[in-house]
Amino acid sequence: MPRLILCADDFALSRPISETIAGLAADGRINAISCMAVSQGWERDSKLLRVLPSSIQIGLHVTLTDEQPLTAAIGIAADGKLPSLKVLTHRARRWRLPLYAVADEIAAQFSRFEQAMGRPPAFVDGHQHVHSLPGIRQVFLEEAARRAPDAWVRDCMDRPSSIWSRPFRGKAIASALHSRGLKRDAALYRLECNDSFAGHYDFGERFAALFPQFLRKPGRRHLVMCHPGAGLLAGDAIAQARPREAAALRKLPIADIAAYYGMEFRA
Fold it and tell me: 9, 155, 158, 236: which one is catalytic?
């Protein structure tokens, strides 16, 4: 039976975000958590994950934008901070990134995850989907295959008919184009991917109403991203949306909606 993976991104970005995500997982409202091991609060916040049911998948959210890197990140970071997504994308597409430094930073984030959790991540992806970018993709997959060979990789690709059936098609198409060939490339490293992907919207006030539409025309492993949280954090462009998502996820009959679209949801 097709399965819904409802993944909360950005764990450890701030303490209120971490507490909200951990609470949703404990209550069976999500079944996957993607963690920013680069964050200063990661080691502290990771303790919230250790008491969760083993059925909750805990993954690594590789971060190469905006945050303080774990390594010197020579040729990538400026003034001790990783670049914006726009700058990183521009440089990656022109093959102007020092991939040895990218590889070192990704390896450091894997190590910090493993040190806190005592095991490799169950899945791996990239904050703002940077793992799909040219050059970065190859070093990311190499490290994932070496450090977490049993993990699956987030693929933002989906069938055109599925994308067309859901809201915010433009965003979904952009993500799909960004991820072209990722599943094929992952297979070269014997890594699996999700079969379909959704969760795009404008971070406005309609998350609860839009959520059922994210589940239309799923694949066998249907991944839906979400960004619940609480509190305000300087520079967090979606801070206002996070508590709205959290409130919706606490109330929505997620398993029933999944069943309506022919999927199983288990936390």
Answer: 9
CA dihedral 121, 124, 126, 132 (to 10 degrees): 160
Q: Which of 137, 128, 216, 124 is nearest to 169 (CA)?
A: 216
Per DSSP, 114 falls in state: H
Going 166 to 183 to 69 to 8, the CA torsion angle's sign is positive
Residue-wise pLDDT for 123-145, tens only, equals 999 999 999 999 999 999 999 99
CATH architecture of 3-260: Alpha-Beta Barrel (3.20)
Q: Which of 265, 248, 146 is nearest to 201 (CA)?
A: 248
Report percent pLDDT > 70 for the chain: 100
pLDDT tens digits for range 75-132: 999 999 999 999 999 999 999 999 999 999 999 999 999 999 999 999 999 999 999 9
pTM of the model: 0.97
pLDDT at 267: 87
Contact 99, 137 (CB under 8 A): no
Please indicate whether residue 45 is annotated as part of the active site. no
Q: Which is it for the CA torsion 138, 113, 241, 167, positive or negative?
A: positive
Beta bridge partners of 7: 32, 225
- The two structure tokens encoding residue 66: 């905006």
